[in-house]
Design goal:
heterodimer; A: about 400 residues; alpha+beta; two-stranded antiparallel ribbon; B: Rossmann fold
């Protein structure tokens, strides 16, 4: 009962000045809308860019770093040999890769691990040649990591397992060399081996560099092209549960494997830095707009209090204490903030929904934005918090009003 | 039977500091008994309103001691004083001072809702009783801002009465009322002291009003010059 009278007074104040209430709430609405919208946009962007990176890159890659020969070979009792440092011949090759993959897979954070052979090669058609990069891998494992099947425009990915010299090529290569499924494609590897491959499928990622150069083949075919045996593997690709925390596991895997581990953040430093910058920028803008909205509430409440000095004095004279007065005006701020926040969340969902139906084209497709519950929860929380704080400052001034000074006038 | 003292001051003194230090109240000591209709008179600037604000507990910046119902209130915390005002003191001011957004009924109910002693239904019932007593029943649901001055003043009196306070304080309660309304207010006050045994302390410069009260204290230059002014 005692508490209800405070909120009852607050509600009457609010309802008897609907216009001011609406203006203040509208400020919060705009602030929350922009805040939620920008942050949804940001999250959508980041998610899209991460996804586009992971279309062609694993979360981390285990490989043997190039090793240089020692410039000085000292053998006790024998002549010391001095050589020019150069890359050792046995570089690039992982020892006992199958065992290493099994070990990696046992790590609790790992969701997928695959042996990989990366090689540079030429796709040829008569005299014309195209340079490219091919990945030799178990195609099922590769599909689990990069979802190749979803980009296939011709042929079936699984057929590659049944055709030892099969190859899946990007649509750019297919167009340039006029290739279709089941046609032959001679390739020449960097070690000079020529092999006639059969086109099993064609994929289209809409990333033109990938489409014009990339292909997939069986592990054994890649090993043959490198003139190597079945234990030749250049990389192990690893996907973990949370790619954002990948740097936490680098060291553990380096220790486990004894090889170099490179995570996707190291490999895409520029992109990661750009995305960080974008995050900071959007957060600053959205917070600034929210602060402006809060200032609107502060302003209107301040004005209300100036106009209501008489009422505050009379409330105090009839037994309302300072904290009661604070409660009354903070409740008013809260009601305005609550109303404004609700409208803001509604408006933001409308905007997000509208933008998610805008077609951009390219490999983006529809605008990469969607309803992000976490952003909406955060927006609601921040909206209410900011308005209550904005209300608290003038409310405290109201509590300090000295009724005698008012009555004397 | 000796009447109980409901309000008592001991050597109350107060200074104003702006523009220069100046003693507005000097060694004020007096008692007010229950059921007494007390008026404070004096020339403009003699400190009678200032004294009333000290008595009302709204002004805490004074020296000396103030007791209401045997409780020492000088030096109490503001929140406690607010509670005392709510429960034991009713106010009537010169310029009516109702909350304009609320109906008359709500204006009267608010201090009682704050006190929380009765249920909402009971408070509403009591508020109607007070309105009836002051002959305002038909105005109950009108917004306070739509009333005439005399009507507003009577609603303010009803509000002052809602918690059955020990003391009703008025600062020029009839200050801007015509003689008809002044008489109505005076009769109400008189009736309250007689039937409800409530104490009235009113500041006034209306000689007729003061003359008709039980006792008149006269102030001059911040001092009490007469504790029971005799009118000739």
């Amino acid at each position: 009962m005692k508490k209800r009278v405070n909120s009852e007074i607050a509600l009457t104040h609010i309802l008897s000045r609907k216009r001011q209430t609406l203006v203040a709430s509208f400020g919060v609405t705009i602030g929350i809308t922009v805040f939620v919208f920008l942050n949804s946009l940001l999250l959508g962007f980041n998610r899209f860019f991460d996804a586009s990176i992971f279309k062609s890159m694993p979360h981390m890659r285990i490989y043997k770093d190039d090793e240089l020969s020692k410039p000085l070979v000292q053998q006790p009792g024998k002549t010391t040999v001095v050589v020019n440092p150069k890359i050792l011949n046995q570089a690039k090759r992982l020892i006992n890769p199958q065992e290493l993959v099994n070990r990696v897979k046992r790590h609790p954070e790992v969701v997928a691990a695959a042996q990989w052979v990366t090689l540079n090669l030429f796709y040829t058609n008569g005299k014309s040649q195209l340079t490219g990069v091919s990945s030799g891998a178990n195609i099922i494992e590769a599909d689990a990591m990069f979802n190749i099947q979803s980009t296939m425009v011709e042929g079936n990915l699984r057929d590659l397992q049944n055709v030892s010299n099969g190859i899946i090529i990007g649509i750019g290569i297919a167009n340039k060399l006029n290739l279709h499924v089941n046609e032959n494609l001679p390739v020449i590897s960097s070690t000079g081996v020529t092999k006639v491959m059969r086109v099993i499928g064609i994929f289209q990622t809409n990333n033109s560099i990938t489409d014009k150069s990339k292909s997939y083949m069986n592990l054994s075919a890649a090993q043959q092209l490198m003139s190597e045996g079945p234990s030749y593997v250049t990389d192990i690709y690893v996907n973990i549960k949370d790619p954002q925390k990948v740097e936490d596991y680098d060291e553990a895997f380096e220790e486990m494997s004894g090889y170099k581990v490179e995570d996707w953040k190291e490999a895409n430093e520029t992109m990661v830095a750009a995305s960080k910058m974008r995050s900071v920028m959007m957060r600053v803008i959205s917070t600034a707009i929210l602060l402006v909205a809060a200032f609107g509430i502060y302003n209107i409440l301040n004005m209300t209090i100036m106009q209501k000095l008489n009422d505050i004095a009379i409330l105090k004279a009839t037994g309302f204490s300072g904290p009661d007065v604070i409660k009354i005006f903070v409740t008013e701020a809260f009601i305005m903030g609550f109303f404004g926040t609700c409208c803001g969340l509604g408006l933001a969902s409308v905007l997000v929904n509208a933008l998610s139906h805008v077609y951009i084209g390219g490999d983006i497709g529809y605008f990469p934005i969607r309803f992000e519950p976490i952003v909406f929860v955060l927006g609601a929380f921040i909206g209410l918090f900011v308005t209550v704080v904005a209300g608290l400052i003038p409310a405290r001034n109201a509590a300090k009003v000295d009724p005698i000074e008012i009555f004397r006038k | 039977m000796e009447k109980k003292v409901v309000l008592k001051t001991e050597n109350v003194g107060k200074y104003f500091y702006d523009p220069v230090k100046f003693k507005v109240l000097d060694e004020i000591s007096f008692d007010a008994k229950e059921g007494e209709f007390l008026t404070l008179v004096g020339k403009s600037g003699c400190g009678k309103s200032t004294l009333l604000y000290v008595l009302s507990t709204m002004d805490t910046d004074y020296e000396g001691r103030l007791f209401i119902a045997d409780e020492k209130l000088s030096g109490s915390k503001p929140d406690h004083l607010a509670k005392v005002r709510n429960e034991k003191i009713g106010f009537v001011f010169q310029f009516h001072y109702l909350l304009p957004e609320f109906t008359c009924l709500k204006n009267i109910m608010i201090p009682a809702l704050k006190l929380g002693k009765y249920s909402r239904e009971e408070i509403e019932h009591r508020a109607y009783q007070k309105l009836e007593m002051l002959d305002l029943k038909e105005l109950a649901l009108k917004p306070a801002s739509k009333l005439s001055g005399g009507q507003q003043q009577r609603v303010a009196i009803a509000r002052a009465l809602i918690n059955d306070p020990l003391i009703i304080m008025g600062d020029e309660p009839t200050g801007n009322l015509d003689s008809k309304n002044t008489n109505i207010v005076f009769d109400i006050f008189k009736e309250l002291t007689r039937s409800q045994n409530q104490t009235i302390i009113a500041v006034t410069h209306d000689t007729d009003f003061a003359k008709a009260s039980d006792r008149t204290i006269e102030l001059m230059d911040g001092k009490i010059i007469d504790l029971d002014k005799k009118w000739d």
